[in-house]
């Protein structure tokens, strides 16, 4: 890993689009959009500080919110911006600061400290207003497909409960009581089938089936508390293959749901595995939990996503032999890291840093310098 400065983080926000093919960062000078596969800088706008930059797949539409460094970039104003024309399309103004924004092709969701607004994207007609518990971090999760489009929000400030709303049909779907401590991170799989949660304690991650709010997996990250920065499912359209979690410890944790759901290897071996139900033994059994130690700088906020997953199976028996994946990480001190991962039939992980470059030094007319160049 390159020598990364411990000075205040230059990145104010980072987000991947709905299929992880592109990502955006907001800085004190403006915002930038990159192609995930090539690392190429696709667009930049230097007009001041931005605290939110959200993309709509690979389209030219952005939802951007200023960081308040100047009056024209108020954190209370949402701008729908066209990168092709370089012009603002529409603006929405609110009484308090906007803490998060999510989109799909039909819905726009705006998260404030104590409310969530659901809009029809094309007309910006307001469809629903959701009163929430105080949500100072703007914590939310969103599944972008129209068939199972859910929004998850904290349901309590004292325990780890989540409310799930169907934002297409505009109704409350369920409440999930996941942890004893308040929620710190949530993620919905892209197909809306699963939700993963972590609490402020940061030691256990739980995965629930959204349709009936039942717990499917539980994983213990470790014994000591740490701040969870991100949770992200792999991009599978069916059962998610891998769940990734970055934290303040500097390690990235991977939970292999594909292998955990395989009937030949799911249940724990030995005496405990024979008497303890799967949901509990999954917590005790580290068989499907892998750690990339020192994958990111400790204490620096980071955002990790699984951008690609490939399952290798035996053609004769359909037995799962290995899982290969690509993990991309944005560190808020200004770096992009890409790791190549492989988990073999013996459930052994191998990983290597494939690319690394400074997000702030890339220019529009040049490709990023790889592997630690700054």
TrEMBL record:
Protein name according to UniProt: Autophagy-related protein 18b
SUPFAM superfamilies: WD40 repeat-like
Signal peptide: none
Pfam families listed in its UniProt record: PROPPIN (PF21032)
Subcellular location: Preautophagosomal structure membrane
UniProt source species: Lupinus luteus (European yellow lupine)
Keywords: Repeat, WD repeat
Membrane-topology descriptor: Peripheral membrane protein
This protein's GO CC annotations: phagophore assembly site membrane
Principal place of residence: membrane
Family from the record: Belongs to the WD repeat PROPPIN family.
Species lineage: Eukaryota, Viridiplantae, Streptophyta, Embryophyta, Tracheophyta
